[in-house]
Amino acid sequence: MLVILGSKSPRRKEILELLDVDLQVYNPNVLEDIKDFKTPSEYVLKTALKKGIATKNQFPFDVVICADTVVACDGQILEKPIDKDDAFRMIKMLQNNSHYVYTGVYLGKGNEYENFVCSSKVYINSMSDEEIEEYLQTPEAYDKAGAYAIQGIFAKFIDRIEGDYYNVMGLPLSMIYQKLKKYKS
Amino acid sequence: MLVILGSKSPRRKEILELLDVDLQVYNPNVLEDIKDFKTPSEYVLKTALKKGIATKNQFPFDVVICADTVVACDGQILEKPIDKDDAFRMIKMLQNNSHYVYTGVYLGKGNEYENFVCSSKVYINSMSDEEIEEYLQTPEAYDKAGAYAIQGIFAKFIDRIEGDYYNVMGLPLSMIYQKLKKYKS
Q1: Does any CB of chain A come closer than 8 Å to the CB of residue B182?
Q2: Nearest to B53 by CA among B12, B3, B116, B108
Q3: Three-state secondary-structure class, residue A31
Q4: Distance of alpha carbon A12 from alpha carbon B32, whole angstroms
Q5: pLDDT digits (tens, 9 = 90+) for B90-136
Q6: Are A143 and A69 in contact (CB under 8 A)?
Q7: Mean pLDDT by 10 residues, chain A (185 residues)
Q8: Which residues does chain A have within 8 Å of residue B165's beta carbon, measured at their own beta carbons?
Q9: Hey, is A133 helix, strand or coil?
């Protein structure tokens, strides 16, 4: 089965490669400018839908998967940091605390699609300012929602998770595997 | 800092490589034949201690880490499967169910050491016999406690976890990172 992954994230590609599908990557390049939302779930659902529609219009006969991931902590939504100070602020907020990671997914073929969300809870140990600074010397933080990568060197700061690990990386793998079954030919 | 990893598991080596340490691998090659235990925790603690003492005796001046991991489901301890039938039996028990993964750790230098345990809970989706058979065609299952690898193609069957993801892989990374701090020179 061919799956069009409408995402430029190399992590999402790695995750889908765990499934037995042929993958083609496409960058839908839409503005992530949803303003009309009440919850993080609604935000990621609408953004994934926007990416999904743009990708489906290019690949109307193929299975399309798009996604959007944000971190929500203390009532704030954290996306990708804009610079090092912003990344420091985010990690300072996340350490010694718990937060939720929401991934909204668009999965469909032609005009038939599902738009669903998966959330995982992540607990991060307390970190000294030196540990945060040291982490921000690496390139890992800067292109990720919440300014950290669970699968990278940040892993040592993660106390525990409740939910799908791959959802924290950017795609809820087991949900996607189940939903892809109906497109198997 | 040099760390001696007393384990032949390539997964444990990968996990420790996420830390900023120099690694040397040693295979303590002890019999995992602990009979005197009441709980899975006690079993992995004693086995990790046995591996730890054997490794420490070879490297008395270095930081040594050893570990043992088992899966506990429905009151049974699952170690590595002995053959394909055994692996099938294990996965049949784990699917559509939850289980605990226990990793016992020995971490020390010379005669000073800690012996601690970390547990994670894993929920696996329901799997058809065909899905189990298909999985057992791959080499992934056969050298792992409980007959599955959370980080491999089995990932698509994992609904959620509660705890440290790396503990399920074989080493509780964040606990080890914290405990290694006192040996930093």
Answers
A1: no
A2: B108
A3: coil
A4: 39
A5: 999 999 999 999 999 999 999 999 999 999 999 999 999 999 999 99
A6: no
A7: 95 95 95 90 97 98 97 93 96 98 97 97 98 94 90 94 96 97 86
A8: 150, 155, 158, 161, 165
A9: helix
Rg (CA), chain B: 16
> pLDDT digit string (tens) for B7-48?
999 999 999 999 989 999 999 989 888 889 999 999 999 999
- pLDDT at residue number A33: 85
* ipTM of predicted complex: 0.90
CATH code of domain B2-183: 3.90.950.10
Which chain A positions have a beta carbon within 8 Å of B20's beta carbon?
Answer: 153
Q: If DSSP states are collapsed to H, E and C, what string results for chain B? A: CEEEEECCCHHHHHHHCCCCCEEEEECCCCCCCCCCCCCHHHHHHHHHHHHHHHHHHHCCCCEEEEEEEEEEECCEEECCCCCHHHHHHHHHHHCCEEEEEEEEEEEEECCEEEEEEEEEEEEECCCCHHHHHHHHCCHHHCCCHHHCCCCCHHHHHEEEEEECHHHHHCCCHHHHHHHHHHHCC
Nearest CB to A173; choose among B155, B174, B176: B155
**CB distance A137 to A88 below 8 Å:** no
